[in-house]
Design brief:
The protein has about 260 residues and is an alpha/beta fold. The chain has 9 helices and 10 strands. It has a 6-stranded mixed sheet with strand order 6-7-8-3-9-10, sandwiched between helices. A 4-stranded antiparallel sheet has the order 2-1-4-5, covered by helices on one side. Helix 3 runs parallel beside helix 5, helix 4 packs across helix 5 and helix 8 crosses helix 9. The longest helix is centred in the last third of the chain and has 18 residues. The chain is globular, with a radius of gyration of 19 Å. The C terminus is likely disordered. The structure holds adenosine-5'-triphosphate. The site of adenosine-5'-triphosphate (ATP) has 10 residues, from helix 1.
Length: about 260
């Protein structure tokens, strides 16, 4: 775990609520992400993790509350100012979403082409460096269909890092991976965070990943319609008294059975 108590906040959510029609997904969500940490958003299915991620990256506005990313407020930013902030963050969606007809290098070059005026040779150099960073230096000319699920995730991370984002948002990075490949991806995320100083915000419900990579986390809960825990995942595992938090981190039944073995 990296100690970042004095690092500046790069993301702040204050009293954030989201409703779809009359249905409240969450309310009163308040937390900070500090520069350089791996911050995990966790919770069971349907608690609003992906929705929160969409709010954090400015895809939609919250019903209430304020979100500041790198000191910008999405709801107040338009045009070039919004594009400038978008350039400072990277996102990898669960699907990876690489274009099947392009090689890995061409996929990584896409955002560079869209957001910079770098000439082709420089774009290729950057793409090659990013693929090298995620261990795919030898696979640059392969097509997505020719590589494994774990390699696809790595390529997705390389593409999300193409413009050197200050914050990298990952949506369920280990979804669909076997435990060994997933552990390898965790190791990559940790080493990228530590070696490049990139801040990671990771949505996941994989307990092993959370414990392996998370410096701090928040846990959302569907019934509570909001946050039920915040802090170092290992401390939450060892010390939380909240039944749902304990159930998740210790793989306990939510309500203890007095007659049953612990
Ligand atoms: N655009 C939308 N309109 C209406 N309801 C939505 C919309 N987007 C999400 N929801 C609802 O909000 C709730 C939370 O969805 P969300 O995908 O954020 O949860 P999640 O925690 O990411 O779940 P999972 O882990 O299963 O992906 C769900 O009940 C979903 O149906």
């Amino acid at each position: 775990m990296v100690e970042t108590p004095n690092a500046p906040a790069v993301l702040k959510a204050e009293g954030v609520a989201m409703r779809f029609g009359a249905r409240t997904i969450f309310k009163d969500v308040t937390f900070e992400v500090r520069r350089g940490e791996v911050f995990v958003i966790l919770g069971g299915s349907g608690c609003g993790k992906s929705t929160l991620l969409k709010l954090l990256i400015g895809l939609m506005p919250p019903t209430h509350g304020e979100i500041r990313v790198l000191d910008g407020d999405w709801t107040a930013l338009e045009g070039e100012a919004r594009r400038a902030l978008l350039r400072r963050i990277g996102v990898m969606w669960q699907s990876g979403a690489l274009l099947g007809s392009l090689t890995l290098a061409e996929n990584v070059m896409l955002p560079i082409e869209a957001h910079t005026k770098l000439p082709q040779a420089a774009r290729a150099l950057v793409a090659s460096a990013k693929l090298g960073l995620v261990g795919l230096g030898d696979a640059q000319d392969r097509l997505p269909a020719e590589i494994s699920g774990g390699m696809l995730k790595r390529a997705g991370i390389a593409r999300a890092m193409a413009l050197d984002p200050e914050i990298l948002f990952l949506d369920e990075p280990s979804a669909g991976l076997d435990p060994i490949t997933s552990a390898g991806l965790d190791a990559l995320i940790l080493s990228l965070a530590r070696e490049t100083g990139t801040t990671f915000v990771v949505v996941t419900h994989e307990l092993q990943s959370i414990l392996a990579i998370g410096d701090r986390c928040i846990m959302l809960d569907k019934e509570a319609q909001g946050m039920i825990a915040e802090g170092d995942p290992k401390r939450l595992r060892d010390e939380s008294e909240h039944p749902t938090v304990r159930a998740f981190f210790r793989r306990e039944a939510p309500r203890e059975n007095p007659g049953g073995a612990m």
